Amino acid sequence: MKLYMSVDMEGITGLVDHTHVDSGKHNYERSRLIMTEEANHVINTAFEQGCSEVVVNDSHSKMNNLLIEKLHPETQLITGSVKPFSMVQGLDNSFTGAIFVGYHSRASTPGVMSHSMIFGVRRFYINDVEVGELGFNAYVAGYFGVPVIMVAGDDQAAKEAENLIPNVTTAVVKESISRSSAKSLTPAKAGKLLQEKTALALKNKDLVKPLTPPDHPVLRIEFANYGQAEWANLMPGTEIEPGTTTVRYQAKDILEAYQAMLVMTELAMRTSFC
Questions:
Q1: Is residue 181 helix, strand or coil?
Q2: Helix (H) or strand (E) segment spanning residue 173
Q3: CB within 10 Å: which end of the chain, N or C, has fewer?
Q4: Is 115 a known active-site residue?
Q5: What is the rounded CA–CA span in Å between residue 47 and residue 18?
Q6: Which residue from 150, 162, 154 is spatially nearest to 201, judged by alpha carbons?
Q7: What angle separates helix 133-143 from helix 155-164, to the nearest 10 degrees?
Q8: What is the 8-class DSSP label of residue 205?
């Protein structure tokens, strides 16, 4: 049994604002240690439950946050950027299931540090389905026939996962009070919860079906302002929907849609607000 893990940071226990997830801020170093320990609770349980291989993809910011020297020695870590498939780099049809750890809710919804890739995005759509990072990544997993069997993060991320993926196991390590505050478990208590939920998710893995993406999906990204839409529209094949800040792209499959999203959001970040 081969397990894929994507580990983000905003949904990790006790982390509530930019000082925890920005490498230049005072809380970051202790936060990446908590992040690493949290990943280890899932990894260790996976091996105990019979997984022969666990591949972990560091999925936050520059994607070099996890402390490799502290991970279970049999872990394979995908780290650093640029990655052609970002938060789902290395995911393919050889995996039995995928687990998302430290995940947050999508932009324009409640939840601790909720957003979708960049803070200039209001909404992502795949055809008419609104998704965030969680949903987009689950669609890529589904393209390869891999079910997302567990999502760990705050209560709003868990709610988003449950609405999107029937029978998914969720581990709620903190409850959102606002976008920058939460009632959180301690790392010790969260660790026990993650161990229990990982074992349950692996036991119930056959109850979860892959989230199959549509053929030839239309990607639509609504940006916060028109300048961002203009930058994103520099990518060939895109168009701005008249009277909106939404940029549209017809993709041949979900993999192309995912990479189009990466390019469009990177371009949009060049926008000046002066």
A1: strand
A2: strand 169-178
A3: C
A4: yes
A5: 33
A6: 150
A7: 40
A8: G
pTM recorded for the entire structure = 0.98
The answer to whether the beta carbons of residues 271 and 234 sit under 8 Å apart is: no
Q: Which of 254, 62, 25, 228 is nearest to 145 (CA)?
A: 254
Residue 272, SS3 per DSSP: coil
Burial of 175 (C-beta count, 10 Å sphere; 0-12/13-18/19+): middle
What are the CB-based long-range contacts (under 8 Å, 24+) for 252-255? 252/216, 253/143, 253/213, 253/215, 253/216, 253/217, 254/126, 254/139, 254/140, 254/142, 254/143, 254/213, 254/214, 254/217, 255/85, 255/140, 255/143
Which residue has tokens 């890529």? 140
Instruction: Kindly name the residue from 20, 41, 104, 115 that is annotated as catalytic.
Output: 115
pLDDT single digits (tens) 158-208: 999 999 999 999 999 999 999 999 999 999 999 999 999 999 999 999 999
